[in-house]
UniProtKB/TrEMBL annotation, chains A, B:
<protein>
    <submittedName>
        <fullName>Aminotransferase class III-fold pyridoxal phosphate-dependent enzyme</fullName>
    </submittedName>
</protein>
<dbReference type="InterPro" id="IPR015424">
    <property type="entry name" value="PyrdxlP-dep_Trfase"/>
</dbReference>
<dbReference type="InterPro" id="IPR005814">
    <property type="entry name" value="Aminotrans_3"/>
</dbReference>
<dbReference type="InterPro" id="IPR015422">
    <property type="entry name" value="PyrdxlP-dep_Trfase_small"/>
</dbReference>
<keyword id="KW-0032">Aminotransferase</keyword>
<dbReference type="GO" id="GO:0008483">
    <property type="term" value="F:transaminase activity"/>
</dbReference>
<keyword id="KW-0663">Pyridoxal phosphate</keyword>
<dbReference type="Pfam" id="PF00202">
    <property type="entry name" value="Aminotran_3"/>
</dbReference>
<dbReference type="InterPro" id="IPR015421">
    <property type="entry name" value="PyrdxlP-dep_Trfase_major"/>
</dbReference>
<keyword id="KW-0808">Transferase</keyword>
<comment type="similarity">
    <text>Belongs to the class-III pyridoxal-phosphate-dependent aminotransferase family.</text>
</comment>
Length: 433, 433
């Protein structure tokens, strides 16, 4: 019966949805019918532990977010050309969580729209076009963002690097080009060199755009001091700094609300998405009054749905739940526990080359040998499938797809962490036997 | 009290929201607290007749849409990498409303994201980069779309026309460069010439992108036969045709579900937005299997929120209401009545140069004299403000901002139409005295 609905849905997808859209576990995809907290429930009656979805940040279908959205939808959903309380309240609440001088908000519908708008801002403000990004980075699905996403322009179907883009090395201290004690300084020098290349090009250096912790590149935690040195280099040539917090913002890193804070920097522009509305389509750009003023050059910025009363109600409810359920502290505690459990497994399993992360943003890198560190891509894929059979949803990524990514909804518990660690251990024991 | 909340909201907006965001009626903006059908209600207790918002298509806060969204939000909101019924059901329902071979859907979060994706598709499919657009057109707020929107790149703060864009004349039979019986053929020849210019350029002609009826350009209804001739010219050189139905789709034109049908054409790609989710952030691109296949070149297309179960539930509810409340036929009937009432006023008011439109997409063009047709920009602005004082919300647009745009939520009634016509008449009588 459930198998039948899966086949039926796949057949119907094939008729009316593009093959460009992928389905997870294509041999045995999951027909989801409901979800709650950190669990998805299939039409087959099974419960799945969700270790992969960072969008339902405060938990799938959190009743407070649902209630806030429904309450506001019944009243009115309109646009920012009208005045309404939720917009200003949300802008105040959001900017209160960000350091000065990040105080001016723009609301959009997705992380892609946020990064698109950030691109427009840095170019309007600096009157330059060159953009510096990190290798392996992904910033969104529009043409303008694919152009600045090495993950896409160097990937399958990609058209290669555009002239106006300069690429800095992925600041990966485990398997990247620089390792050891001075890796941070050397990666920073590499990025500053890329900024300087843009600076002397015909395009000029408009901005350095980066996730403070990298997601698709393989859960990369840059060495301490890296981002501060890069930002200094950018500012030395008048380039702006953009922190893409779409994947990792809103307390996931545990110690701070924002990942850039773990690198002791304050960007000129922050872009927000995914977790911001707990699945309601919402994104934001927050910048300084100075940059917002440059951008206000006479061209109106209008976003039909962005900053609507309902979107703001969703955003406000997410902030309330993060605070009331102390989810940032929870992410720190559970993340530390899970990281420790996974690190313990390293002693028994040489294929675990690295366990890294902050809060509930964790990566487990699978390699053939702790020293040689060749990627175990196939092992990672088999682990993803084995865990799925056990009812645990997890994904792999990175340029060699050998990094297991862990970024669950924040209610993820100590018991869930233990269940995950046990499953990883069991899979690796069986794989080795 | 209400004045105080308006001042308070304006002050708080000034602190945390960009000046690039405009507010309607800046001397006396409206603090909206609830809405229903075709009415907005202010914190001042006043009811406002909404003649401007085409996004709450089936009526502000329609209970069936709210209920569908809330029901699905309580169950699960996830992404298209999982299987769920609402996605395939919505794709089936939507494509059933479109002519063959438009049968493959992509779901996104806004009209801008839809047009962005259409741009990627036409370039991937044709391996060309040149885009032909109509003068005065607006296709969205990303950099890639501002580049193809003369309304923006030639407007305040605009950077001018990029090399890869060719601009065809606005097919405006009233005040454009071609008038009279052969205007359609002459505008078509102008557009085909632009397509041919792109074709011989270094970029090649990837696509002709146009709203079948133009919105921001001033509620332009092209002459009969125009689009068919342009599409023939595009196809003759292998360029694709994109119909931007973001403003005007879903039955507003009354005689048909889609505006392109009023011009007897079938585009290669249709983009949808604004009304599609009745204010829930949603957009779509529908294309042919052939173009979808070219686009599936190995690069995954992933849109975090696009096509989520909740978005699809909103889309499905909108289709249900359009059908059950027979809103397309209603738009035809009420639109015809309103157009007739406004046309009657032309005899008394020489400043009404033209009344045009299809269904509930109507424009009233104000000019100094029916023959000379110089734009009465100031009169249009004063009319907008006078009607606002009467509790009627309406806007002006077009290159000279002298066209009164009427595009209300579809429940707009005969009585509402009469109220609007009486108010227009009264204003023009007072303005002339």
């Amino acid at each position: 019966m459930s198998g039948n609905t899966v086949q039926d849905l796949l057949r119907r997808r094939a008729s009316h949805l593009s093959r460009s859209l992928s389905v997870l576990y294509d041999d045995d995809p999951i027909h989801v019918v409901r979800a709650s907290g950190q669990y998805l429930f299939g039409a087959d009656g099974r419960q799945y532990l969700d270790c992969m979805n960072n969008v339902p940040h405060v938990g799938h279908s959190h009743p407070r977010v649902t209630e806030a959205v429904c309450r506001q939808m019944k009243l009115v959903n309109t646009n920012t050309r009208f005045l309404y309380e939720p917009l200003v309240e949300y802008a105040e609440r959001l900017t209160a969580l960000l350091p000065d001088p990040l105080s001016v908000c723009f609301f959009v519908n997705s992380g892609s729209e946020a990064n698109e708008l950030a691109l427009r801002m840095v170019r309007t403000h600096t009157r330059r076009r060159g953009i510096v990004v990190q290798d392996g980075a992904y910033h969104g699905n529009t043409s303008g963002l694919i152009d600045i996403s090495p993950y896409k322009f160097n990937g399958r179907g990609g058209a290669g690097k555009p002239d106006f883009v300069e690429v800095a090395a992925t600041p990966d201290p485990f398997r990247g080009i620089h390792r050891g004690a001075d890796a941070g300084a050397r990666y920073a020098a590499d990025a500053v060199a890329a900024i300087d290349r843009a600076g002397v090009s015909e395009f000029g250096a408009a901005a350095f755009i980066a996730e403070p912790l990298m997601g698709t590149a393989g859960q990369i935690i840059p060495p301490d001091g890296y981002l501060a040195a890069v930002y200094r280099g950018a500012r030395a040539v008048g380039a702006l700094t953009v922190a893409d917090e779409v994947q990792i913002g809103f307390g996931r890193v545990g110690t701070h609300m924002w990942a850039f804070q773990t690198q002791q920097v304050i960007p000129d522009i922050v872009t927000l998405g995914k977790p911001i509305g707990n699945s309601y389509p919402l994104g934001a750009v927050v910048t300084t009054p100075e940059i917002a003023d440059s951008f206000a050059n006479g061209m109106e910025y209008f976003n039909t749905f962005g900053g609507s009363p309902v979107a703001c109600a969703a955003g406000l409810a997410v902030l309330d739940v993060i605070e009331d359920e102390q989810l940032q502290a929870h992410a720190l505690r559970v993340g530390a526990h899970l990281k420790a459990s996974l690190a313990e497994l390293m002693a028994r399993h040489p294929s675990i080359g690295d366990v890294r992360g902050l809060g509930l943003f964790i990566g487990v890198e699978l390699v053939d040998d702790p020293e040689r560190r060749s990627p175990e891509t196939d092992l990672a894929e088999r682990m993803v499938l084995a865990l799925r059979r056990e009812g645990i949803l997890i994904s792999s990524d990175g340029p060699d797809h050998n990094v297991i990514k862990i970024k669950p909804p924040l209610p993820f518990s100590i018991a869930d962490a233990d269940r995950l660690a046990v499953a990883v251990d069991r899979f690796l024991r069986e794989a080795a036997s």
